[in-house]
Amino acid sequence: MAYVDIQKGLMKLGYGKMLGKTGIDGIEGKNSKKAVLQFQKDYNYIFNNKKIKVDGIGRNETQKAINHWIKNSGLKGTKNFGINEMRCKGSGTMVKGGMDTKLMTKLEELRYKLGNKPIIVTSGYRSPGHNKNVGGAPKSQHLFGKACDIKVIGVLPSKVYNLAVTLFDGVGKYPTFTHVDTRGYKTRF
Fold first, then answer.
1. Which residues of 148-180 are buried (b: 16+ CB within 10 A; e: fewer)?
2. Dihedral class, residue 14 (left if φ above 0, else alpha if ψ from -120 to 50, else beta)
3. pLDDT confidence of residue 50
4. What pLDDT sits at residue 21?
5. How many domains does the chain have?
6. CB 130 within 8 Å of CB 91
7. Rounded Cα distance, 80 and 83, in Å
8. Can you give the CATH number for the domain in which 101 is found?
9. DSSP 40
10. What is the pLDDT of residue 38?
11. Quick one: pLDDT at residue 32?
12. Taking the CB of residue 92, how many other CB atoms lie within 10 A of it?
């Protein structure tokens, strides 16, 4: 296990800001230990049936817990993206099986690249009825839990778009928000 893998996993789950200016450098320094410690506490709270040692030390147990949370991020959310904010704005429902885990971790990567500025999800999952009501495409990625529309306060949608195209499969630029998705192939609109 390389320590850089722990740091990459922490960033994907929303602990990138805690890594400090050095970011992902593979060194188990002061900031990394703080991030690991907070992750361990949060993991034990969220996955209360799978407790891990809380000591700030990145070991195999911590890497396994990071991987477990990433795998379940579509059902549990991440540090900065709660699963409830991904629910359908019209019906309050969630896609069966939860949001796409790749979408959830890519949102955290985008937040990290934006200097950890908060991202507001204006539309996540959409039920078929709500998708129709808002004029969504018949095969919208929102219907499958693979898309969301986002805003970043103080950042132009064009800048968000330019960073998003480096991370997401589908990216759409609109005057007041940016659409991102993990459809499995590249498309820009």
1. bbbbbeeeebeebbebbbebbbbbbbeeebbbb
2. left
3. 87
4. 84
5. 2
6. yes
7. 10
8. 3.30.1380.10
9. H
10. 98
11. 96
12. 10
Q: Which domain holds residue 17?
A: 3-71
pLDDT beneath 50, residues of the chain: none
- β-strand pairing of 170-173 with 147-152: unpaired
Write down the pTM of the prediction.
0.95
Do 110 and 144 have their domain in common?
Answer: yes
For residue 149, give the nearest of 117, 112, 175 by alpha carbon: 175
The C-alpha atoms of residue 173 and residue 87 are separated, in whole angstroms, by 22
**Residue 26: phi, psi to the nearest 5?**
80, 5
Of 41, 39, 32, 38, give the one whose Cα is nearest residue 3: 32
pLDDT at 1: 66
For residue 30, what are its two tokens?
A: 């002061």
**Same-domain pairing of 61 and 93:** no
Q: How far does Cα 94 stand from its chain's mean position?
A: 16
Domain assignment of residue 76, yes or no: no
pLDDT digits (tens, 9 = 90+) for 67-105: 999 999 999 999 999 999 999 999 999 999 999 999 999
Q: What local confidence, expressed as pLDDT, does residue 40 receive?
A: 98
Q: Tokens 């950890």 label which residue?
A: 116
